[in-house]
Amino acid sequence: MPELIIALPKGRLQDAALARLACAGVRVNGAALASRRLAIADETGRFRFIFVKPADVPVYVEHGIADCGVVGRDVLLESAADLLQPLDLKIGRCRIVVASPHPETVMNNFGMLRVATKYPRIAAEHFGARGLPIEIIELSGSVELAPVLGLSDCIVDVVETGRTLAENNLSIVEVICESTARLVVNRASYQLKAKTVADLIRALGEGVRQETFA
Ligand code: PRP
Questions:
Q1: CA–CA separation, 214 and 210 (whole Å)
Q2: Can you tell me which atom of ligand 1 is nearest the CA of 11?
Q3: Range(s) of the domain holding residue 122
Q4: Atom 18 (ligand 1) nearest CA
Q5: Ligand 1 in contact with 157 (CB < 6 A)?
Q6: CATH of the domain at 12
Q7: Ligand 1: nearest atom to the Cα of 158
Q8: Would you say the CB of residue 141 lies under 6 angstroms from ligand 1?
Q9: CB 99 near ligand 1, within 6 Å
Q10: pLDDT in tens, 62-112
């Protein structure tokens, strides 16, 4: 029986998350990683990793299937999950932005804006706080296409390098917030597995600090 189960996001954050854990002494065997198995143990058997879609990390941790997880702030803001967030891992840095092929039209628009996004909650809160009426068009990927093809006036999406925006002729209208990946912890696990969780937070935090001051 592993001491801790850790949910990791498949995709662009996965390698950076594994590297942070390796710095904290939690290592996964390369052959196991290269396999298609979605649940694997670390080299000591003390930890078990489950690999899930980024948006599902908060779900597994909130329900206690995983004790901890690594997830972007963008996903956390979109999720309603009740989780502890003890550590900014300072990986997966990106921005959540409003972007459009016609930024000036969006800025001067006071009528109903059509907003395509994978982040309906963040979009609704952002425009709602300004009292601007919007129609949210929820998509699950390739969001940049929506305003180019006339499905929406703008998008709310994450930008990492800016390449996808640039190559689809979209410009940033405004930055909603910055995002980095966080360690999240289930509330019950934080109490019941206090020492193991605290040791992990300390070791991960040490790695973050060493990198920051390197
Ligand atoms: C994300 C995001 C942008 C892109 C930004 O999409 O939704 O499309 O990455 O990255 P960039 O600024 O480095 O170009 P993702 O790759 O997760 O795929 P998706 O469109 O299927 O959601």
A1: 6
A2: 17
A3: 94-178
A4: 141
A5: yes
A6: 3.40.190.10
A7: 2
A8: yes
A9: no
A10: 999 999 999 999 999 999 899 999 999 999 999 999 999 999 888 887 789
